[in-house]
Design goal:
Blueprint: E1 8-9, H1 13-16, E2 17-27, H2 31-38, E3 42-43, E4 48-52, E5 55-59, E6 62-63, E7 80-83, H3 86-96, E8 101-110, E9 116-125, H4 128-149
Antiparallel strand pairs: 1-8, 2-7, 2-9, 3-6, 4-5, 5-7, 8-9
């Protein structure tokens, strides 16, 4: 029996932001949260990371309530602590001090050992003209692929 695959991605991240460094972080979850995530009932589209009291937290990550949970069920949009080493936390703290910088999640996945991991990245928001430029490049690439296919 193979482990269930988790395929939760933030598809808009690469369009909305310039990504710089990528980190893999563990995440602190309760029992009902992990069960919902294993059922692919989570979303990281609106999530972002904050630095608070020497720790990094993910805010606004949606994890649907577990359907078989009782009164021990979790809150869907609670802040969740990220597990990083001290060197990475210090780099994140320095990065977030600059105005306009943010940390966004890219992917939520299951490691080989069965732990839920979160791939996060340093991000700087794109301007409107950058987004238009990316769309133009994408359209040009699509046209070239069509021409080569014929």
């Amino acid at each position: 029996m193979s482990a269930p695959t988790i395929n939760i991605k933030n598809k808009k991240a690469r369009f909305e932001y310039h990504l710089q460094d990528v980190f893999n972080a563990g995440i602190v979850l309760s029992g009902t949260e992990i069960k919902s995530i294993r059922n692919n009932k989570a979303s990281i589209l609106e999530a972002y990371c904050i630095f608070h009291d020497g720790e990094v937290w993910i805010r606004n990550m949606f994890v649907n309530e577990y359907e078989n949970g009782t009164f021990y069920n979790h809150r869907p949009r609670a802040d969740r602590k990220l597990l990083l080493n001290r060197k990475e936390i210090n780099r994140i703290e320095k990065f977030l001090k600059v105005k306009g910088n943010t940390i966004i999640p890219l992917k939520l996945y299951l490691s080989e050992k069965g732990w839920v991991k979160l791939e996060i990245a340093f991000a700087v928001g794109k301007k409107l003209h950058d987004k238009r430029h990316d769309l133009k490049q994408k359209d040009d690439q699509r046209e070239m692929d069509r021409a080569l296919k014929r």
